[in-house]
Amino acid sequence: MGAFAMAQKDEWPKEGELLVVTIKTVRQNGAYAKLDSYGDKEGFIFIGEISSGWVKNIRGHVREGQRVIAKVMRVKKDRNSVELSLKSVSEERKRDTLQSWKNSQRASQLFRIVGERSGWGDDEIEATADELSSHYGNLYAAFEETAIENEALRNEGFEGDWIDVFIELAIENIVPPFVTIRANADIEIVSMEGIEVIRTALSKAESVSNPTEEVEVCCYYDGAPTYRIELQAPDWKAAEASWQKVLDAITESVSEDVGTVNIERD
Length: 266
Known about the structure:
Layout: E1 18-26, E2 30-35, E3 42-46, E4 67-76, E5 81-85, H1 91-117, H2 122-136, H3 139-148, H4 152-155, H5 162-173, E6 179-189, H6 194-206, E7 216-223, E8 226-233, H7 236-253, E9 259-265
Parallel strand pairs: 3-5
Antiparallel strand pairs: 1-2, 1-4, 2-3, 4-5, 6-8, 6-9, 7-8
Helix pairs in contact: 1-2, 1-5, 2-3, 3-5, 6-7
């Protein structure tokens, strides 16, 4: 299930790969660590790979039970040996890798809830999670995409009542980088100034954009009388508030004596 899912028993990490590992035993010359994404496999961190500086006391840098980010330096499958390094991982990559691992763990937990609520067995949970991971790159990305666009799974061809449970959990538990509202607007004008009225209406809709609040509204021509509206905002509260402004801007520009407007969200 995703980049940090539990690997198969015969799988090994690749050289250069960044891993989340848990320190198991600290020795004078280094530390043994469990490879959290590779079952029971362990790796060894030589004291020279603990820190870029001089390590006087190894226990001042690592301790049993500590979770750290390590880089795979060498893999010797014939000896069941994996050599790891802590000093070769920058602080930025440590943060990114750990966050990705946490996201993966969270997504796996949430999807198990989806499966349990849907009455699935372990095989169906695993198969569907693998299908989502294959489609989106990883399971967390599927949850994140759904939090941004609630109908994302159905739009990609996924089917079943389980999707409603998936949507509910995504909205409740995932904080997306932004959310999107999409809609189709049918605008028909009966006056001679039809094109200008529509241009003004859509221009006012786009003026709802607010860079300071990270709100962006874009309107596209899909072929008369249909126009596509897309609104992007940092969260649903801001999105809904801005969406109401978009509706007001369009309906105020197209009065009943000028034409008709029908707007339907995707």
